[in-house]
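FORM 12-B: Structure-to-Sequence Request
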């Protein structure tokens, strides 16, 4: 809520942290922090200079594609009551990168399954990717390619069966259709 001072928001956020070790150690500590926040006095635990090294560490982990570690650092900062805009921006970047990584893994698995002509499994992996990112053009194109290959394989199989029947003369007149055709023709 923009009408509530940032220091007061941080103090309350820390007081209701999910993890008890990130909450205030005593009611006195909470009271003192709230008094400082209400009087716009600096609050040491929310000092931005204390936050910088940990944010830098999270950025470095993100840059190295160590999204789990970066997320852990950000999670700790959030649970400690820090409400810095940079934290939420980095959280969004990490979440997006994790999503892209997972979609990429699913597409790779689908490609492997497609190469092995396991089209149903390939489609399952593509569908998982599309559930995460419905507009992913690579996944959409791959789905169409898998469908085409599966259809081609099925048609090839049907033609193979038909050829085998023709070569072995393993076909007979369909009595129902013969009767039906005869009755329609007046025979």
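FORM 12-B RESPONSE
SEQUENCE OUT:
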């Amino acid at each position: 809520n923009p009408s509530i001072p940032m220091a007061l928001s941080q103090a309350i956020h820390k007081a209701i942290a999910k993890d008890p070790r990130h909450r205030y150690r005593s009611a006195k500590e909470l009271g003192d922090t709230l008094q400082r926040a209400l009087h716009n006095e600096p609050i040491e635990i929310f000092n931005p200079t204390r936050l910088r090294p940990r944010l830098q560490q999270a950025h470095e982990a993100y840059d190295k594609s160590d999204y789990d570690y970066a997320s852990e650092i950000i999670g700790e900062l959030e649970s400690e009551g820090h409400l810095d805009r940079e934290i939420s921006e980095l959280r969004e970047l990490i979440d997006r990168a994790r999503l892209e990584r997972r979609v990429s893994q699913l597409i790779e698995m689908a490609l492997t399954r497609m190469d092995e002509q396991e089209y149903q499994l390939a489609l399952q992996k593509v569908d998982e990717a599309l559930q995460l990112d419905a507009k992913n053009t690579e996944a959409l194109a791959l789905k169409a390619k898998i469908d085409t290959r599966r259809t081609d394989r099925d048609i090839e199989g049907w033609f193979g069966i038909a050829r085998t029947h023709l070569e072995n003369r393993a076909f007979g007149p369909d009595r129902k259709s013969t009767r039906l055709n005869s009755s329609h023709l007046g025979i």
